[in-house]
Amino acid sequence: MSNREVLRLYVNGEDIMNRHSNRWIVDFVQMPMEQAQQYREPFKYVEKHVKPVRDKNNERATRENWWRHKGTVPAMRKALEPLSRFIATVKVAKHRMFVWLDPIALPSDRSIVISMDDHLHFGLLNSSPHVIGLWRQVERLRIDRSILRQLVLKPFPSRACWMRSKPKSNRRRGIWTRCAAF
Questions:
Q1: What is the Cβ-side half-sphere exposure of residue 77, based on CA atoms within 13 angstroms?
Q2: N or C: less crowded end of the chain, CB within 10 Å?
């Protein structure tokens, strides 16, 4: 077994918007401890640096599965598995920019991942009409940019279904949320 199998390029918002920091992380996905131990050097590193922190965690599952990432998002991993690359952007940013990422990259939880690898959708997402329309919706709905991810794919019904929720206050007219895929 090669240690390469469990090493992933860590990508956060700074890496997407500026320049890659070339940070790598150990990712055992959902491996049991016995299987993870077969990768000796990465396991030793995680045991030395991660385990002491996780031992102090209040969540029992986090303490017991200290070698695993807390939120592995199996649905995202499954969607990205057959792709040669995928599209990513950051959740909160002044300017919206979509980039290609290699499958070896593991985006942070502050990233939006779009499981498409074709030029058509990449071009549409980066197009002026999409970006301008996105900002108009933000201004019209008077919503915070941090929930912008719920609006990003609204124009693409072929991949996802979106529905408007009931407003929680008079200030908001409703928020687009994802429902079951077609």
A1: 12
A2: C
